[in-house]
Design a protein that fits this description.
The protein is about 35% helix and about 20% strand. Helix 6 packs antiparallel against helix 11 (about 270-295), helix 8 crosses helix 11 and helix 11 (about 270-295) packs parallel to helix 12. Strands 1, 2, 3, 4, 5, 6 and 12 form a seven-stranded mixed β-sheet that branches. Strands 9-8-7-10-11 form a five-stranded mixed β-sheet, sandwiched between helices. By secondary structure, the chain is an alpha/beta fold.
Length: about 375
């Protein structure tokens, strides 16, 4: 089946569209990536999405216009990726504007803004969307949802394999080995903390809106991380939580950046960006070290995808901190770093059509596995 996956993540830089073909068994699919297109959000739309993800108050008309604008860009990305309309199904994550994991006194809730029936009509193709809600209804975190797809797309090796996505937020997948006593273990996964979100916001602020991110780690490479501050930040409550856990821009957004800036008054800009970059690597390394300390899991390798994998300073920090692991790009395994999440949602849509569960209790904390997503058909 030809399936189109659409992903717009926490970085809110636009929509990644991946056209893929799937066949075979759901857990071990034969797959090929036929095309990949990234369509950026217009600047004003990106700014609005970022504001929405940080609790900015909008009136009803603003929310309606935002959902329409996001849907139109999703459709634009889909057409650019699949100009001949080969896709028989579309899997669209929508744009997360708020994520609230379950806690004492609160059910979990998460909002991925999209007008799915409109998208289905614009593309004249069924659209599977709203992937998180059933997991949340079952008491889960609703995130991350990509780990089961990671395991299916990348497969197993002789030992535990880690897959790290460096988007706005870093999320980690641990895939059990193909042989040995752990081969029957569950796939694991969780959100580690900020990856690019704080770095991007800092670059936007320091450049007065001229720069959206630290291209090639240029700013961080000119600075030195403040090690004592990083060690203090790693003791914050979220980083002490065991999995399952999830987070987003509502926690690691502009307000969080301002708090961290106030802790380091007078620090040169390059040093501050270098500190944020090293911090993003440190939260991942600490989570992996905590697992190893408890004699649970130590991956042989860490496969890295997402926009942050193109930041050489961030990758260097990961390699220094994740000792004993081979840190490599997903491109080396035939999975382009920019395609990983869009491809995963194409796979989740295919699984929806086969009634194959896409979550796992060991990852999200849901009471049971479930088929993810809601289907919208064109009229």
């Amino acid at each position: 089946m030809h399936v189109l996956g659409l992903m717009s993540g926490t970085s809110a830089d636009g929509v990644d569209a991946a056209l893929a073909q799937f066949s075979g068994t759901p857990s071990k699919p034969n797959w090929s990536l036929l095309n990949l297109v990234s369509t950026p959000y217009p600047k004003d739309l990106r700014n609005t999405v970022v504001q929405a993800g940080q609790g900015q108050r909008f009136n009803s008309r603003d929310w309606l216009e935002l959902s329409e604008a996001i849907t139109e860009v999703q459709a634009q990305a889909a057409r650019a990726c699949d100009p001949n309309a080969q896709a028989e199904l579309v899997g669209c994550h929508g744009q997360t504007v708020w994520h609230r994991p379950p806690s004492k006194g609160h059910r979990g809730a998460s909002w991925q803004i999209l007008q799915a029936p409109l998208l289905a009509e614009l593309l004249q193709c069924p659209v599977v969307h709203d992937f998180r809600s059933i997991d949340l209804a079952l008491g889960g975190q609703g995130a991350p949802l990509v780990p089961m797809a990671d395991a299916a797309l990348l497969g197993r090796v002789a030992g535990w394999r880690g897959v790290l996505n460096l988007g706005g937020i870093s999320n980690l997948t641990l895939i059990p080995p193909r042989n040995g006593p752990d081969r029957g273990s569950s796939v694991l996964g969780w959100d580690c903390g900020p990856a690019n979100s704080l770095i991007d916001l800092a670059m936007h602020q320091f450049s007065k809106g001229k720069l959206a991110f630290d291209r090639d780690g240029a700013m961080a490479s000119g600075g030195r991380p403040h090690a004592a501050t990083i060690e203090r930040w790693l003791k914050e409550p979220f980083f002490q939580l065991p999995p399952p856990k999830s987070t987003g821009r509502e926690q690691f957004g502009q307000a969080d950046l301002e708090n961290r800036l106030q802790e380091l008054p007078g620090l040169p800009i390059a040093n501050f960006v270098a500190t944020l970059t090293a911090f993003s690597a440190a939260v991942v390394a600490q989570d992996l070290d905590n697992l190893h300390t408890k004699n649970l899991v130590r991956p042989l390798e860490l496969v890295v995808a997402g926009g942050g994998s193109r930041n050489p300073v961030l990758m260097s920090e990961l390699r220094q901190r994740c000792r004993g692991m081979r840190v490599r790009l997903s491109d080396e395994l035939g999975l382009r770093a920019e395609a990983r999440e869009a491809l995963a949602f194409a796979l989740l849509a295919w699984w929806h059509s086969l009634r194959q569960p896409g979550n796992a209790p060991a990852i999200t904390g849901a009471r049971n596995a479930a088929v993810l997503g809601v289907r919208a058909d064109p009229g």
